[in-house]
Structures are given as C-alpha cells and as structure tokens.
Amino acid sequence: MGYSDKVRKIYQEQIKGIQDAGIFKQERLIHSSQAADIEVEYPTGSSLKKVINMCANNYLGLSSHPEVVKAAHEGLESRGYGMSSVRFICGTQDIHNELEKKVTEFLGTEDTILFPSCMDANAGVFEAILTDEDVMISDRLVHASIIDGIRLCSAMHDTFKHSNMDHLEKKLILHADKRLKVVITDGVFSMDGDTAKLDEMVALCDKYDAMLFVDDSHSSGFIGKTGRGTHEHCGVFGKIDIITTTFGKALGGASGGCVSGRKELVEMCRQKARPYLFSNTIAPVVVSGVLKVLDILSQSTERRDKLEANTEYWRKGLTEAGFVLQPGDTPIVPVMLFNAKLSQDFSKDLYDEGIYAIGFFFPVVPNGKARIRTQISAGHEIHHLDKALKAFIKVGKKYDILGKTKQEIIEMYGL
Amino acid sequence: MEEMKDVVLEYVIEEYLEDEDEELTYDTPLISGGIVDSFSMVSLKRFLEAKYKISIPDEKASPEAFDSVNKIVELVKEFVG
Questions:
Q1: A93 and A80 in contact (C-beta within 8 Å)?
Q2: B20 — contact with chain A (CB < 8 Å)?
Q3: A157 vs B18, B39, B50: nearest CB
Q4: Active site residue A175
Q5: Which of the listed residues A270, A285, A406, A411 has the most CB atoms within 10 Å of its CB?
C-alpha cells in the first residue's frame, strides 16, 4: 500500500497550512432548491435556517423555474439519463445539435460547440486553435479557467493592465510579428462586476489584425438590451471572434458551457479540443433545460429587465446607506470592506440576520480589497432586497462604516 | 547612453506597478515578490531583446534570472556584444 503514514502526514500538514492561513474553504449545505429563499445547514450539524440568498449566479432566477424543470423532466423521459460516450463515438443526440444551433443564433455567431463546462471550454480552446507561432494577450484579471487554458497552450502569452486600452495597444505593437494574435478578456469581470470595453477592443483588434476572445459567463442572458451579452451592450454584436459562456449561471444554472464564434475556430475545437474529445458532453436532461431557458429568453426580456431594475434598486439603497461600492452597473455589486477579517465577521453577522452573502479576500481578490460580493437576481422581490438592505445597515452600523470613505475604513480596520 | 539598469527599472515600473505609490529598487524581488508573474515575464524578455538587439534563450530566461533589476541587467550584459 503506497499511502503510508509518511504520505498521509504530508497532506495533513498541507491542509493545516491552508487552515492556518485562514483560507480553508467550507461548504454550506442547502436543503432546498436554488432560489432567493433557501434553507441552509451551517455549520454542518446545526439546525436549518431560512435565509435570503445574495450570492448565487442565479441572475435570471431560472435555476428552479417550473417551465425549465418541466422541460428537464421531459428530456429525461424522452432522451434518457446519460450518454455513456463522448460526442464523436455515440454521445451526440439531436438535441445537442439543436442546442448548438440555438446558442449560435442567441449569441449572433457563426457556430457553437458544447463543452461539459465553461471551465472545460476555456481549458481546451486555446490549445485547439493556436500554436507556438502565435501569441495570446490577456487582461490581467481574467478568470482562473482562462489562465489554465493559456497554460495548456504552446503559444506565447503576455498580459495587459486591467481594461487599459493604451497598454493593450502597446502589446499588440510589441507582438506584431506573430502569426496569429488573440486578445483575451472576460465580458463582465466576476469579482469587481465591471464590463470590458469591447467596442474599443474590437477597434484595436481590427487595427492590428488580432482575434478577440470574450468569456461572457457573467453576462449571457442578461447584459445588453435583449440579454445577449457584453457584445450587445457595447454595440459590437456579431463582431467577436470567440465567445465562451456557461449554462451554469444565468442560463438555468445547472452545468455545461460552450465555445461559440467563427466557424473555422469551432471546427478546430471539434477536431482538437481535449475536454470535448475525451469527456462526455452535457447530459440530455440539462440540454433540455437549457433549450427551454433560451426559448423563455427569446420570447421576452421581462426577466433581464427585472434584474436591471433590482440591481439599480439595490445599488441605490446601499449607496444611500453610505457603503463604499465597487462602481459598475452589473448585478455583481461588491460592498468594499478592504480588511479580510472584517469581511468574514460582516458575512457572519449578515448570516445571523438571515442574509447569505460571502466575504471574499486575498488570494481570491487582491490584498487589501476584501469585500462582500452581492449578486442580484430576477428571482429577488423588493421585499427580499429591503430585508437584505436592513440587515446590511444594521451590521454596517455595528462596525461603524456607514458614510465612511475607503481611507477611513482602512484607518479603522487596517488592510 | 542611458544606464541599462535605469532603463530596465523604468520599464518594470511602467509595465507592472498598478499603484503609483509602490516603491521599486534595483534589488526588489520581482517574481518571488509577486510584482511580476511568470506569465508577464514574456513582455520584459521581448522588450530587452528589442531594445538591446539580443536574443535570450528560453532556458536562460528563468524566473530566478529575472527576479530583480540588477539580476536582469547581469543577464542582458552576457548577451550584449
């Protein structure tokens, strides 16, 4: 047996190191469906508590929508539970193909390929379309899954300062000699909730003959007038070469992702992307659910409109109460606390008040930029937001941070 | 001719520092100090190669060799004729 006491001790020490550093992650068990109102067991073993969920990616409130659940049931009945095969052997059903066509239409691209997750899409896409003659130029705050994909690719990699277009242009000039250039960004950045300047990026990419890659996981379904994503919001619909996105957030929240874009790039993924080639694709039950989600969103913008109104209401309430917010207009609304311990204490007190919102601190966000990241949903009603706001104000008063500036909070609690 | 170490220092400050208040000296650890991530080293390498008309082999461009302005200058001098 290779798992000796010596081996076990090495891991035990590593786990202790994570605990000692205060970055040990613990799951909280939810005993209900995902929604604005949830029942949580936390800490494990304690009795269930009814709380308002302010930290789900359930932007459109579709995770437990009756029509989506019904469609998933029907899919389960008609197409079964699993595929027991990768796509190119015998793991592709008509509905996989139908979903790819519907996503293509929804995102305004040329073609789409499904992946088991957007993490997989990002991990597989760069290696499939680039070689060591090429360069990837990424925003310094792109999502971890993109970083992993970049690491797996032999092309040269460089970065530009977050959303800094002058710096990006310098990099495009510096790497002008490369065969292919890909500029890489998130559409909406998950921690700060800010939006990429896609209009300026498209112009730069045109000027310097580079392709543009956008991960729109925190945008698809609700950003833009009809919810198509940041490209719609920025007026560059149809001009993005590669979009990756997830079905695990606004679009039903179950799982799965895709690469959508120029047809040759999608075809290269179909031929070469390893997470596509060596893993089963999205289960039929989920595909059926996502098809229904896209139907709902194509018929009406009601849900994204409600989300927009809720976001505005929430942001206004927090601002008037005197919190320091990260500026932006997306449903990701970070309440800045700067100090890591304060973010943890604040989150715990909110939970006691029946509000479930998590504190984020280094290394998930930069040192000294700890915050409570709130995420608004179309599933929230005004009474949810009012109750949450009341709790935020109560806890904010306890720590005496209302009306205080960034500098004042830092002076009180340190970085 | 501009002193090489000032050229490198200025480039590193402009390229990597986000906060204008941060201080950087010739010996500040860049990679082990978390100022430059190993990904971003590539632009520094390309800048040096273009500026001094040299070619630094990948095996020489290690995180250790790029860990401070002084170390970078030492490395570049190996290749400048």
A1: no
A2: no
A3: B39
A4: no
A5: A285
Q: pLDDT over 70 for what percent of chain B?
A: 93
A176 touches chain B (CB under 8 A): no
Task: Give the pLDDT confidence of A193-230 residue by residue, as tens digits.
Answer: 999 999 999 999 999 999 999 999 999 999 999 999 99
In chain A, which residues have their Cβ closer than 8 Å to the Cβ of B49? Answer: none
> DSSP letters along B45-58, please?
HHHHHHHHT----T
pLDDT of residue B21: 62
A164 touches chain B (CB under 8 A): no
Secondary structure element (H or E) that encloses residue A30, with its range: strand A29-30
A11-23: pLDDT as tens digits:
999 999 988 887 7
3-class DSSP state of A246: strand
CA B30, B35, B39, B40 torsion: positive or negative?
negative
Nearest to A54 by CA among A403, A410, A392, A396: A392
**A157, A218, A306, A384: which one is catalytic?**
A218
Q: Where in chain A is the domain with CATH 3.40.640.10?
A: 66-299
List every span in chain A annotated with CATH 3.90.1150.10.
32-61+302-413
Residue among B18, B39, B43 minimizing CB distance to A171: B43
Distance from CA of A286 to the nearest CA of B (A): 36
Do B39 and A174 count as a contact with CB atoms less than 8 A apart? no
Residue A190 is a catalytic residue: yes
Which residues numbered 47-76 in B keep a CB inside 8 Å of some CB on A? Answer: 47, 50
Confidence of residue B18 (pLDDT cuts 50, 70, 90): confident
* Residue reference for tokens 């060596």: A278
Q: What is the pLDDT of residue A229?
A: 98
**pLDDT at residue B46, rounded to an integer:** 87
Spell out the CATH class of A66-299: alpha beta
Superfamily of segment(s) A32-61+302-413: Aspartate Aminotransferase, domain 1 (3.90.1150.10)
Pairwise CB contact (< 8 Å): B46 & A161: no
Sign of torsion, CA B13 B18 B23 B26? negative
ipTM confidence: 0.79
Tell me the CATH number for domain B4-79: 1.10.1200.10
Q: At what angle do helices A302-321 and A284-299 cross, to 10 degrees?
A: 80
Environment class of residue A47 by beta-carbon count within 10 Å: exposed (0-12), middle (13-18) or buried (19+)? exposed
Query: What is the pLDDT averaged over residues A25-34?
Result: 93
Domain boundaries, chain B: 4-79
Q: Which residues of B touch A174 (CB under 8 A)?
A: 43, 46-47, 50
- Long-range contacts of the stretch A46-52 (C-beta < 8 A, 24+): A49/A351, A49/A354, A50/A354, A51/A351, A51/A354, A51/A355, A51/A356, A52/A354, A52/A355, A52/A356, A52/A380, A52/A384, A52/A387, A52/A388
